[in-house]
Amino acid sequence: MWIGVHVRIGTGYAKAIEYAKRLQCTAIQIFSTNPRSYRTSAIDEAALAAFRTMRHEAGIEKCLIHAPYLINLASDDPKIANGSLNLLKYDLAVAKAGGIDYVNTHLGSYGKRDRNEGFVGACRLLEAALEEIGRNVTLILENSAGAGSLCGGTLAELGRFVKALDHPQLGICLDTAHAWAAGYQIDSQRGVDDFLYEAAEQIGLDRIAAFHFNDTEVPLGGNRDRHHHIGEGNIGVEGFRALVLRPELREKIAILETPGEEADDLRNLQTIRSLVASAEVPQSAGTPASW
Ligand SMILES: [Zn+2]
Ligand SMILES: [Zn+2]
After folding, report:
1. Would you give the distance in Å from CA 100 to the centre of its chain?
2. Distance 212 CA to ligand 2 centre (A)
3. Distance 225 CA to ligand 1 centre (A)
4. CB of 187 within 8 A of CB of 235?
């Protein structure tokens, strides 16, 4: 897997690359702007070109932009819908300018709106965003924690978007903490097998571009979005082991959005890497099949 963390770029692209390099990341995720604002600034082509070069020199092959949290594609308020589309288009343009492979977005909330009507509205905005997408950029939709009116809490609903939009540059990102909060019991081999079986049926594994690897202390189906250190929450080491063991996921990206500082990032990355290393041991005689 291509493994890395969400990196802050508040102090500049160079510092962000330095940080990710120190942690030996092969993938990173960034915000292109303040994730809690509708305002965007002019696209700095030169800085983005330099970022692209630095990134490749550091061996960070995969990069995702996480679109702002304010985005709500399912809203019936035209101001929110238009503002969301603008933010999404901006991040797609930044990705194009910076040779960044993916833009990851939340879908938002239907609020009091009829779900079918909201779904159609969200599809229209996504279609508009996809019209201007750069050739090498993929737009990815992230699953939500599935509370009441939230959009994208189930694999079935994400699959509906993939089928309705039917666009080659549309993918899905599965956040493990959100999946758990939405009721998917991915804390064991069996649970992960069921989850991925359903993901394959509803979405297609080839459409799943990335994972957000986060543990969580929220109870199963608790519908709350709280991230915790890998292996120290309810998903636990067994859940992540089962995920990294799957050969179909070997070429996928895994970004950690776990809390804390550098030491925490390092510890969380080491936990994932040790699980990946154990998965890469050849299955020789004497190795249990379920290893
Ligand atoms: Zn997210
Ligand atoms: Zn996430």
Report:
1. 14
2. 5
3. 10
4. yes
In a domain, 160, yes or no: yes
- The residue type at 140: I
CA of 142 from ligand 1 middle (Å) equals: 6
Name which of 76, 166, 155, 81 is nearest 116 in CA terms: 76
105: CA distance to ligand 2 center in Å?
A: 9
pLDDT value at position 135? 96
Q: How many domains would you assign to the chain?
A: 1
Q: What CATH number has the domain bearing residue 161?
A: 3.20.20.150
pLDDT range class, residue 110, cuts 50, 70, 90: very high
Residue 135 is assigned to a structural domain of this protein:
yes
Looking at residue 289, its pLDDT comes to: 47
Look up the pTM and report it.
0.94
